[in-house]
# Entry
Amino acid sequence: MRASDVGLTDAEYAEICRLMGRAPNALELGLFGALWSEHCSYKNSRALLRRLPHEGPDVVAGPGGNAGVVRLTDSWEVAFKIESHNHPSYVEPVQGAATGVGGILRDIIAMGARPIAVADLLRFGTDVHSHHLRQGVVRGIGLYGNAIGIPTVTGDLAYSDTYATNPLVNVLAVGLRRPEHAIGASTAKPGQLLVLLGQRTGRDGIHGASLLASQDFHGSEHDSMRPTVQVGDPFLGKLLMEVTLTAVERGWVGALQDLGAAGLTSAVAELSESSGVGATLWLDRVPLRQAAMTPYEIMLSETQERMLMAIDADRWDDLKALADEQEILATVIGVVEPGEMIRLLWQSEVHAEVSARWLVRGCPRREVTDEEWEGFRRPVPRPRVQAVAPGRGGARDLKSLLLDVLAHPDVRDRAFIYQQYDSTIQTRTVWGPEHDVAVLKLHEEPVGVVLSVFGTGQWASVDPYAGAAAAVIHAVSRLAALGAECLGITDGINAGNPDKAESFGQLGGLVAGVADAARALGIPVTGGNVSLHNETAGEPIWPTVMIGAVGRLADAAHPVADVVREAGARLYLLNPAPLDLGGSVVESLAGGASPYSLGPLADYRRALDAMSQSVRSGLVEAVRVVGRGGLAAALVRLLLPAPPSLGIAVTLDEDTDDAKRGRLFNEGVGQWVVALRPTCEPAFLRLCEAAQVPVCRLGAVTDVAALSIDGRVQWTRAELLAAWRPLG
Amino acid sequence: MAQFRATVVVTLQPDVLDPAGDATAQVLRHMGYRVADVRIGKSIEVRLEAEDRAEAQALAHKMAASLLANPVMETFSVQVEEL
Amino acid sequence: MRVAVVTFPGSNCDDDTVRALTALGVSPVRVGHRAQDLSTVDAAILPGGFSYGDYLRGGALAAQAPVIESLRAEVASRQLPVLGICNGFQILAEARLLPGALRPNRQGTFRSAWQTIRVTRASPLFWGLEEGELLRLPIAHGEGAYYLPPGQLAAVFGNDQAWLQYVSEDGLLHTEANPNGSVANLAGVIVGSVAGLMPHPERAMADYLGSADGARLLQAWLSGISRRDGHAR
# Structure
């Protein structure tokens, strides 16, 4: 076997020989191939990710573990993380997406947390095949989440041809744990038994990490290289979850690590390396699904629904009894050793002997100089000419333009998707997928978790730095709209082949944008995921970052409304953005793609604080964040679920048609439409003035059941609804 | 042209995990049956017109390969009878 | 009152059901699928979920569990009140404790939504739940299309077994209000002391969760049991 067979370069092979002081045998080479893959080693991204801010007053566990953890209340912590399953979902959409959900849930469980919510962040092309992929992916997410009993409560979905042969399937999971049940991979002690729990090991997904997820996709000519498709078993996943969490709650578990990419290899190496120990594995004891599997196959299998646990020997009988009761397999497959060497035995014979440190930390990584980093932090300059030139939606009259925007796939109602997901199980869902954010109330306390997810689109394709920063601001803006505090964010980065300068630059831009925005807003990034090699036949996708923000809401049973409720309420636009259509839906309708530069990041922080404070002071009756489709779409969303007699009348200050369109359809982040009772108006305006955040008066809620702009253009609610939620 | 009925039996490839088969096997064992293994597939009946049996077989095979079975994870067999 | 919450491998609404019953002042007892003796319980709930992964057919594998034979015996001997919710309903139908079968939804996909349900027949099992009453409850199922073999529909309606129906928000019975292709919009049936429904009352326990009508339905069931058995609660 050669280095290139397991995806390693000659230089990496030389480094392995140097570390080992000898040439690796085939099994050892396989272990290195898996753990030194891009997917497992983050060799091209680690130096960038190190520059993200990780600290915060509520951070319990930052990056490095299976998931980030933040403090919610004195009795509850929240574990959350995003993960990608892009390539597997292209190969087999149903199982690819299902195993993606299963995988991220086990990451949460491996922190000792019980999963309480899933979110899906998806990108597809627009052709017929993409349509089938989307149907399969949605089915797969529901297949796993619904069956294991975790609600899918929110999501993000957008389309572009750039994703036609490389869809993005990012899944985020959130879990709750008691502080006293905190566990991780880093606490194994010599002498403890290594127990493998769950599914029998089969030939699933061998080389999934090193080849499928870490190299560019070339289409179908590589069929023979394709690993056996992994099949998710949510039924077994449920039993495994219960056994694992029960063992954690009973204090039996010394250390815990799920088996994901690179299977047992990654699990034992991560557990050993982070605990500062070694391990001996008796591979002939691993329960197999197929006869005659080799040590190589056993170590690299990506069979799902497995967990690795280190336990004291005197807990084995208890754990075995618990697993028997639930009818899942528990097998002692090894023992934790002092030192750092991992020894793989097959019938008492040593087949491999490598250091956990070499496997996890030995891979040569790409460094990033300060100068390079500064280069990533430069936004693409905004064109001098205002981007509301004719042709950018200018050809259409305003009446049909808004209906086109509402019907745009990135804007329109998603019920046809989220109705395939169970969103109400576990009975915490105060706000589910029909809202812009999810609100989950704890059973035991009035406090709730708010989950906001948002990914970049066209804006990041022309300006990765500004687009990524904007995505962070947008995700956090939705927490501010509820007066919730942001505890942390997780970022799912998806980019092309890092060996190409352009793609690496885009990757750097995305990370720098997330870093600068998070730092400016004072928010820690507690972990995330990087998926590279999102290319097909040399064509990279748009660089895309998916953001998940987790917040704390004091009174989760009563979130401030996102729909108007009474005629007479005044409408304001808090923190109006420049009249620029760069990166907007209207621009893409007209076939354009231009950057939209951000304002100073400190201004956004002031605006977020002002928004949050207005809500907490009880001044706000209803609020919507301006998002895809701009102010106009936000007004429609504010109106559609309202009592049928209500309407909205807006008068714009802008004097030209172009300027009015710029106001209605720009997608600048950090803007909110706010509805106030007239009596609250003075206090709200004082608060905004004191905070130096601009506001502009938009109009009022009326008892004429329509949306009207300047008294000239009017849409009935039926027209708006028909565009936004087409029948069938 | 003659009428044929093609029966396409689609099963998972031998190496692919079959959670439904495993769970079913487990319950059959609880019920007292000595079951080694259960694999669940589906049977699809297609009524079609063809010149002869050979053509019917070829057509059904094509349908199975292109749509009825997912070659990424499934295999299939085709049986044809004249109606 | 001792209410058993019967779980199978893969049940996943058991915690929600236990929480709902507790909120209504009952201390439920959890009973596993191997339980042989149910002689000491006053009622049993089969909660929702994906017992045995819903593999083969929803509820089919769980219907073979030993606890089902115990339930069957208690129902026959002392009319034990049994309530099957969602997967619990599927299990009761597969066990022939209720008529008909739950087939994959007409649209072929899982469906999760808030749904208005009409009480079509009042039953002494649910004391205080009046005929014609509307309840707003969540549904969440992939196999919820209630099916009856030809000829049985008239019998189900004739014998007052047709308990709940899917209706529009204003209470009208029509095809568009049918979320899954159930025959005659049926969402729940009752035979003797055994009731089954696809919607999830245990998830509609407070206004902030979207509706408190589930609390009303479960309370009616508990009241029905109390009145029948003369329990002091």
About this structure: The longest helix of chain C spans residues 213-229. Chain C touches chain B at residues 52-53, 55-56, 61, 64-65 (CB under 8 Å).
